[in-house]
Design goal:
Blueprint (H helix, E strand, L loop, with lengths): L1 H15 L9 E3 L14 H11 L3 E3 L8 H5 L4 E9 L5 E8 L5 E9 L4 H12 L15 E2 L25 E2 L4 E2 L1
Parallel strand pairs: 1-2, 1-3
Antiparallel strand pairs: 3-4, 4-5, 6-7, 7-8
Protein backbone atom coordinates (compact mmCIF):
# COMPACT_ATOMS: atom_id res chain seq x y z
CA UNK A 1 0.00 0.00 0.00
CA UNK A 2 2.86 2.37 0.81
CA UNK A 3 4.43 1.66 -2.57
CA UNK A 4 1.19 2.48 -4.36
CA UNK A 5 0.83 5.81 -2.55
CA UNK A 6 4.47 6.65 -3.22
CA UNK A 7 4.06 5.86 -6.92
CA UNK A 8 0.95 8.03 -7.20
CA UNK A 9 2.68 10.94 -5.47
CA UNK A 10 5.74 10.59 -7.67
CA UNK A 11 3.62 10.64 -10.84
CA UNK A 12 1.62 13.65 -9.67
CA UNK A 13 4.78 15.63 -8.86
CA UNK A 14 6.34 14.82 -12.20
CA UNK A 15 3.29 16.07 -14.11
CA UNK A 16 3.14 19.32 -12.16
CA UNK A 17 6.44 20.54 -13.62
CA UNK A 18 5.86 19.11 -17.10
CA UNK A 19 6.26 21.55 -19.94
CA UNK A 20 4.01 21.82 -22.93
CA UNK A 21 4.56 23.00 -26.46
CA UNK A 22 2.48 26.10 -25.77
CA UNK A 23 5.11 27.28 -23.25
CA UNK A 24 7.54 27.92 -26.11
CA UNK A 25 7.43 30.81 -28.55
CA UNK A 26 9.80 29.54 -31.25
CA UNK A 27 9.71 26.27 -33.20
CA UNK A 28 12.46 25.09 -35.54
CA UNK A 29 11.31 23.09 -38.57
CA UNK A 30 14.14 21.11 -40.23
CA UNK A 31 14.64 20.95 -43.99
CA UNK A 32 14.09 17.17 -43.92
CA UNK A 33 11.99 15.17 -41.47
CA UNK A 34 13.37 11.93 -40.07
CA UNK A 35 10.40 9.88 -41.31
CA UNK A 36 10.63 11.10 -44.91
CA UNK A 37 13.40 11.14 -47.53
CA UNK A 38 13.05 14.84 -48.37
CA UNK A 39 10.32 17.46 -48.14
CA UNK A 40 7.79 15.05 -49.58
CA UNK A 41 4.14 15.97 -49.78
CA UNK A 42 4.81 19.60 -48.74
CA UNK A 43 4.63 18.67 -45.05
CA UNK A 44 7.01 21.40 -43.90
CA UNK A 45 4.85 24.08 -45.55
CA UNK A 46 1.71 22.65 -43.98
CA UNK A 47 3.35 22.41 -40.55
CA UNK A 48 4.65 25.99 -40.86
CA UNK A 49 1.14 27.21 -41.80
CA UNK A 50 -0.57 25.44 -38.89
CA UNK A 51 2.00 26.67 -36.36
CA UNK A 52 1.74 30.29 -37.51
CA UNK A 53 -2.06 30.02 -37.22
CA UNK A 54 -1.53 29.04 -33.58
CA UNK A 55 0.74 32.07 -33.05
CA UNK A 56 4.10 30.28 -32.92
CA UNK A 57 7.15 31.87 -34.52
CA UNK A 58 8.65 29.39 -36.96
CA UNK A 59 12.42 29.70 -37.26
CA UNK A 60 14.02 29.45 -40.70
CA UNK A 61 16.59 26.74 -41.33
CA UNK A 62 19.35 29.36 -41.69
CA UNK A 63 20.53 30.04 -38.14
CA UNK A 64 22.06 33.40 -39.09
CA UNK A 65 18.56 34.86 -39.48
CA UNK A 66 17.29 33.66 -36.09
CA UNK A 67 16.29 36.24 -33.45
CA UNK A 68 19.09 37.26 -31.09
CA UNK A 69 17.52 35.75 -27.98
CA UNK A 70 17.28 32.32 -29.64
CA UNK A 71 20.86 32.54 -30.90
CA UNK A 72 22.06 33.29 -27.36
CA UNK A 73 19.86 30.60 -25.79
CA UNK A 74 18.83 27.84 -28.24
CA UNK A 75 16.74 26.22 -25.50
CA UNK A 76 14.06 28.85 -26.13
CA UNK A 77 13.05 26.97 -29.29
CA UNK A 78 11.55 23.54 -29.84
CA UNK A 79 12.50 21.22 -32.68
CA UNK A 80 9.66 19.73 -34.72
CA UNK A 81 9.82 16.36 -36.43
CA UNK A 82 7.37 14.21 -38.39
CA UNK A 83 7.53 10.41 -38.43
CA UNK A 84 5.59 7.91 -40.52
CA UNK A 85 3.58 5.44 -38.49
CA UNK A 86 2.85 2.10 -40.10
CA UNK A 87 -0.80 1.65 -40.86
CA UNK A 88 -2.50 -0.76 -43.24
CA UNK A 89 -5.16 1.28 -45.04
CA UNK A 90 -4.59 4.74 -43.58
CA UNK A 91 -2.02 7.51 -43.85
CA UNK A 92 -0.77 7.92 -40.31
CA UNK A 93 1.97 10.16 -38.94
CA UNK A 94 3.31 11.47 -35.64
CA UNK A 95 4.38 15.06 -35.03
CA UNK A 96 6.83 15.33 -32.15
CA UNK A 97 8.33 18.37 -30.45
CA UNK A 98 11.65 18.09 -28.61
CA UNK A 99 13.66 20.61 -26.62
CA UNK A 100 17.36 21.46 -26.94
CA UNK A 101 18.42 18.34 -25.01
CA UNK A 102 16.33 16.02 -27.25
CA UNK A 103 13.79 15.50 -24.47
CA UNK A 104 10.35 14.89 -25.91
CA UNK A 105 7.92 17.63 -24.89
CA UNK A 106 4.77 16.51 -26.73
CA UNK A 107 3.73 14.09 -29.45
CA UNK A 108 0.63 14.27 -31.61
CA UNK A 109 -0.67 11.52 -33.87
CA UNK A 110 -2.94 11.95 -36.85
CA UNK A 111 -4.66 9.46 -39.14
CA UNK A 112 -6.28 10.12 -42.49
CA UNK A 113 -8.49 7.75 -44.44
CA UNK A 114 -7.56 9.41 -47.75
CA UNK A 115 -5.55 6.89 -49.77
CA UNK A 116 -3.49 9.36 -51.83
CA UNK A 117 -0.24 10.14 -50.02
CA UNK A 118 -0.06 13.88 -50.67
CA UNK A 119 -3.64 14.66 -49.63
CA UNK A 120 -3.69 11.99 -46.93
CA UNK A 121 -0.56 13.23 -45.13
CA UNK A 122 -1.78 16.83 -45.40
CA UNK A 123 -5.01 15.87 -43.67
CA UNK A 124 -3.18 13.70 -41.12
CA UNK A 125 -0.93 16.56 -40.03
CA UNK A 126 -3.95 18.84 -39.73
CA UNK A 127 -5.80 16.28 -37.59
CA UNK A 128 -2.69 15.62 -35.49
CA UNK A 129 -2.22 19.28 -34.58
CA UNK A 130 -5.87 20.05 -33.77
CA UNK A 131 -5.31 19.48 -30.02
CA UNK A 132 -2.18 21.70 -30.03
CA UNK A 133 -2.81 24.78 -27.89
CA UNK A 134 -1.96 28.26 -29.09
CA UNK A 135 1.34 29.73 -28.01
CA UNK A 136 1.23 31.42 -24.61
CA UNK A 137 4.91 31.90 -23.81
CA UNK A 138 5.65 34.54 -21.25
CA UNK A 139 7.37 37.48 -22.88
CA UNK A 140 10.65 38.15 -21.17
CA UNK A 141 11.36 41.84 -20.78
CA UNK A 142 15.06 42.61 -21.12
CA UNK A 143 16.65 44.28 -18.13
CA UNK A 144 18.46 47.55 -18.82
CA UNK A 145 21.09 48.97 -16.52
CA UNK A 146 20.39 52.53 -15.36
CA UNK A 147 23.10 55.10 -15.57
CA UNK A 148 23.59 57.41 -12.61
CA UNK A 149 21.95 60.70 -13.46
CA UNK A 150 24.12 63.72 -12.80
CA UNK A 151 22.09 66.59 -11.48
CA UNK A 152 23.35 69.89 -10.27
CA UNK A 153 21.91 70.91 -6.91
CA UNK A 154 22.85 73.72 -4.66
CA UNK A 155 21.03 72.63 -1.52
CA UNK A 156 22.06 69.52 0.40
CA UNK A 157 19.16 67.35 1.57
CA UNK A 158 20.30 64.55 3.89
CA UNK A 159 18.78 61.11 3.38
CA UNK A 160 17.78 58.94 6.31
CA UNK A 161 20.35 56.31 7.21
CA UNK A 162 19.61 52.84 5.83
CA UNK A 163 17.88 53.93 2.63
CA UNK A 164 21.00 54.78 0.64
CA UNK A 165 21.29 52.71 -2.51
CA UNK A 166 24.26 52.62 -4.84
CA UNK A 167 23.02 53.92 -8.19
CA UNK A 168 25.36 51.65 -10.16
CA UNK A 169 23.49 48.50 -9.05
CA UNK A 170 20.06 49.57 -10.33
CA UNK A 171 18.21 47.69 -13.09
CA UNK A 172 14.90 48.47 -14.72
CA UNK A 173 12.44 46.71 -17.00
CA UNK A 174 10.80 49.95 -18.06
CA UNK A 175 8.24 50.19 -15.25
CA UNK A 176 9.99 49.00 -12.10
CA UNK A 177 13.52 49.66 -10.80
CA UNK A 178 15.41 46.83 -9.10
CA UNK A 179 18.59 46.81 -7.05
Amino acid sequence: MKNLVAAILLCSFSTINAQETSDYKYINIPEKFSGFDKDEYQLSNRLRYILTQKKYEVLPSDKSTWPEDVVLNPCLALNADILKVKSFLNNKLEVSFTDCSNKSIQKFEGTSKIKEFDKGYQEAIKLALNPLKSQNAKASVPMVKLEKAQTETTAYIPEPIGTQVAATNLLTDGTTTYQ
